Each structure stands twice: as structure tokens, then as C-alpha cells.
Amino acid sequence: MSTAVKTQKQTMVQAITDGMRTMMREHDDVIVLGEDVGRNGGVFRATDGLIDEFSDKRIIDTPLAESGIIGTSIGLAMNGFRPIAEMQFLGFIYPAFNQIMTHASRIRSRTLGHFTVPLVIRAPYGAGVRAPEIHSDSVEALFTHMPGIKVVVPSNAYDAKGLLIASIEDPDPVIFLEPMRCYRSHKLEIPEEKYIVEIGKGARLQEGEDITLIAWGAMIDVVKKAAKEIEESEGITCDVLDLRTLFPLDRDLIAESVQKTGRAVIVHEAPGTGGVGNDIVSLINDTSFLHMRSPIKRVTGHDTPVPMFAIEDDYLPNSDRVKQAIIDTVRF
Amino acid sequence: MDTQFPIKQILNEDGIVVNSEYESEMTESLTKELYTKMLRARLFDKKSVNLQRQGRIGTYVPFEGQEAAQIGSALVLKEGDWMFPTYRDHAATLTYGHSLRNLFLYWKGYPMGCVPPEGKKIFPPAVPIASQLLHATGTAWAEKMKGTDHGSIAYFGDGATSEGDFHEGLNFASVFDVPVVFFNQNNGFAISVPVEKQMKSKTIAQKAVAYDIPGIRLDGNDVFAVYFETREAMKNARNGNGPTLIEAVTYRYGAHTTADDPSKYRDQEESKRRREQTDPLVRIERYMEHKGFWEDSWKAKVENEITVEIEKAVEEMEAFGAAPSTDMFTHVFETPTWTIQEQLDEFEARAKEEV
After folding, report:
1. For residue B354, what are the domain limits?
2. Is the same domain home to B183 and B290?
3. Per-residue confidence at A4, pLDDT binned at 50, 70, 90?
4. Residue of B nearest to A105 (CA)
5. Would you say domain A203-330 falls under CATH 3.10.310.20?
6. Nearest CB to B134 within list A57, A68, A111
7. pTM above the 0.80 mark?
8. Same-domain check for residues B140 and B151
9. Nearest to B171 by CA among A300, A138, A69, A223
10. Which of A74, A95, A98 is nearest residue B138 as measured by Cβ atoms?
11. Are B167 and B155 in the same domain?
């Protein structure tokens, strides 16, 4: 086939590097800032090799200061660059919270569009990789609650490259959350060329009739496993949705699916209280209340700090908890 | 450290030149320009306080007493430079070309008040403390990467030096040799807390030592010292010599904002004394008298012109009409998300029903 797209088998972290490389080759204004992103290639090797191609002028090792990285990136973004700022872990983003909350996300609004901040903040997140304390937080809801920033979470290598390119091309700030558990969990054929996965659009990973399972990031594998096992053991078939963007949510996809199945289980590893799952429940309430045949269940992390890793598996939702929620919902 | 960082002065309180380094440039025309701009800022400030008292604008943040620090530094900027003011720096933003009308609108709570004239790189007033030092560093860093000779100036107070972003701003700027001037106005108080409780350091300028950048301490009420020293700092920045920290020692006569009462935490007799003895405008008037530049009729003419200009801006503010409520929806993202679009549609539908 003469139109065949050239592809390469890549892990998710390689696809992320590829996304940055693709955009940096195309646009001189795309630069990378972060701790250890240069010669070391980042603690997860997400920027591996980029310094050789683009030099330390565009792959910039910064001082160890999250607020400084985001604050200067805001200035760079307002003045003609498109910075990709790497947070070493999402759990370390808190010193930069003020810069994101009071500046990055509202400069366009404050100035009625006079100044804008085309900034991408990349951050590895989530539990389950036996990381030290604080490294495993999953605080996407802090950012979905924040007006003026989009929240993107790929769960696989293909989406990661396409969503990252879409995020870099977005004229507004995007926080790009990278589930650490997925970095090297799989390999996919990734097109070498540039492509986009649209922000705000989820994906249906499998078709089913009885219930809709909604998740993102590292919980996708958990949900897929539960869906497979429940079909084998109980004959229950699941529509599985990977939201991919947490703000703005893909309302049409969720509504269409739950209106078909009449049931939903939402799975996320962040604490349930104040979590994105609650917004999804509201969305279903607003769009599909009369279609629902049973109350929506949420399977989430506990309302506790992510514990130290010896006990983190008991913090995280697993396929058994998801299966139980499916059964409770279907047999309600 | 206070001996290592003595307060630089060009003109003393009596308007006498005590450092003749720049005397040849202290012409009648520059002097009159500086004086006119200071008078304009002071009259704007007084007008704003009055408007607040009359309920025609909201809470206002006065800067009276700090005119020399703001105007001497702002006059140094050239087209293409970036300015990051705080909420107390309207004398600086006015000098760099912000519109009087929009400054009034800002304090009337109008979103338009944050918008600088087209092409003017004036950031909205920094409200969280010290965060703007990083934006100034970032924008200036961008200028350096683009190879221009533009730079940034960041304004901040003595309280801001306690914030982490103060350190991060100076550190990033020094590590990357960024063309930025960190212009501190040490007015002695962060709301009610005196500078002695803010830091153990005797000076703010000495903090530059930690970043291996120049630190300059100057009399912030001496507009010539401010102007020439800031010009040197900005020249250094433009020439690729990196950032400078300037501490302009000054005093705010009035309250932190129109919502507070300074007599609760300090002796306002000190303000009175300073008005009489160290006031930045009085000092220039004395200098002009010594030099024979001063004429009462000139002052009256200038004051009259400024008053007319300010009154016109007040009229423009009041003729602006209602602030469009839709402004809150339309600029959050370049293209509104469905959530915001629906909220806007619902808002407009409600507004229609109410008509």
C-alpha cells in the first residue's frame, strides 16, 4: 500500500518524547524546561536525546524550583514561545500552584485576550509503581476545578503522542498528566508523522450493552480487565470509555453510552470526595437521568493521602472492586 | 551591610546636587518632564482617593510619596520593554503609557481596567505577592532568546522579598543572565508590618550578593538617582550583563488601601514630617528654584492641564457604561469550552427575559 503510514513500536514514554520531537522540529518556538530534562533526559527519560538534537538552548535544565519553572514559562509563553514545562512528579507541583491558579489559567481572562499563555505542563502521576512518598498523587481534580486550564490524561502510547501534539498546539494552558504505570506497560505502533488526538474527545474502547465503565489513565487497564472477567463469568457486557480529557469532558460520548446501557460505574484512583467522578455523575444526571436503571457507582481511591507503597495496592481501585460495583449496579 | 550598600543620592532633601556624575544631563527639559509626570501621578492619586470616598470607584491603593521611585524608573523603559507593576504602581504604568481611563476603570472593578493600550507590554497589576518577578524573568528571557535588546522591569515591595517567588525570580534571572531589573520599593511597611519585622537584613539591596548580581540601594524619593541608576541597570541588561536588584527607599504617606487606617499601626506624624522634609516633588521644586527653572506660572499651567486631562478621564470612565458581564465568559479560552458556552447562553437568555 503506497499510502501506508510509517510506524514505530513505542512505549508511552517514547511516544511522548516523539510528540515533543515532532513539534520541536516543526516549530522553533517550542521549548522544554524542567529539572534534569537536559543531559539526563528526565527522570523517566521522557526527554531522552532531545538535547542532542535541539541543544541546551531549547531543552533547558532549570534550577530546582517548580514555581520558578511555571512562572518563567508563563513569561516565555506570553512573549512568543510555546514552553513545555515538566514537573518531575505531579506530587511536586504544589509550589507552582499559585502560578497556575492565579496567572497561567487567568491571564487571557484578566486581559480580555490581550495576553495569552500557550503553555503545556507535563506531569507524571499516579500510584502503583512503588514510588517513594508524595510521588504517587493523583490530583487531577485540583485542575479540573481551576477555570482556564484544560486537563488531559492519555492511557496509551498512541493517544499520548496525539494528545501531546494537540496540547502544544492549543492556544491556552494544558496540564498533561502522564500515568506512570502506563509509561512502559505496553508498546503500540506509533505513526512517525505528526497526528492529533483532539482534546475534549474520549474514546470507546469496547462495545457492550449492560453497563458503561468510565475511567482514564492507569485505571483503563483495571477497567478492561474487570470488563473481560465479568463478561466471562457473568455474561455482562460493558461499554468501556477512556475519557482522555477531564476538562472539558466529552459529554456526548458519556451521554450516548449511558443512555444505551442505563448503568454506569466510574473508576478513578484519586480520592472520591471532590473527585472528577462526581462531575461525571452530574453530567449523567443532567443529560440522561431518565435513562438510568440504577444508581451510578464510583470506585475510587480512599479519602486518604496515597499511602506508602507497601500498602498502596489496597489504596488503588482493582478489578475485583470494579467487578463488585458492576454486579451491584446490574443487579440493583 | 548598610555601609556596604549606602543609599545613593544625586539630589538631597534641599534640592542640592550632592553627586555631580550626571549633572550635565539634568537639564531643564528632563527636570520638567520628571516633575510634570510626578505631579500628574500625584493628582491622579488624590483624585482616586476622592472618587473612592465619594463611592464612585471601589477600594483604591494609594501610592502618594512614591512618585519619584515609580516615575524615575518607568521613564527608562523603551518601546518593546515589559513592565510588571503591582497594584500600587500606577505612577509607573501611567508613565509607560497606560491610559488614565483604564486605571480608573480598574478601581471601578471593570475587567477593561487590566487591558493596556494596544502594543503596550504592561501586565495587569500583580495581586499575589512576588509572583510577577518570574513573569518579568520569563518575558525578558524570551527577549534574550529572540536576540532583541528589550528587557523587563518588575515592581515589588519590601514584603515581597519574604516570598519564595522573590528568590526564584532572582535565581532564575541570574542563572540565565536574563535582561531584567528587579525594582523594589521599600516603603517601610507591608500593610502594617514594618520592614524590621519582615527581614533581619539591614537592606534589601544586599540580597543581590546571594545571586552574584549588582544590588543598588538608592534614595527612592530622589527622582534623578532613580532615573540614572535604573537607566544604568537597564543598559546593563540590554547589553547582556544580566539582572540588577534595585532597592528604592521610600515611604507611603497614606494607608495601604482606602480600606485601612494607618494610625492603628504607626505614627502618622512621620508622614507629615516626610511630606515637609523628604517629599519627592518638593525636592525637585527646590532644585528647580536653585537652577532658575521654576516659575509659579509654569506650575499653574501644568497643573491646570493635568487637572483637565484627569477630569476628562473621569468623565470617560463614567461614560463607559456598564461593564459587559459577558466579558467573564468570552476570554477564559480562545474558544469557549461547552461548559462555558452553555453558561453564557443561559446567562444571555436570562438577561433577555429580564429586559
Report:
1. 324-355
2. yes
3. confident
4. B332
5. no
6. A68
7. yes
8. yes
9. A69
10. A74
11. yes
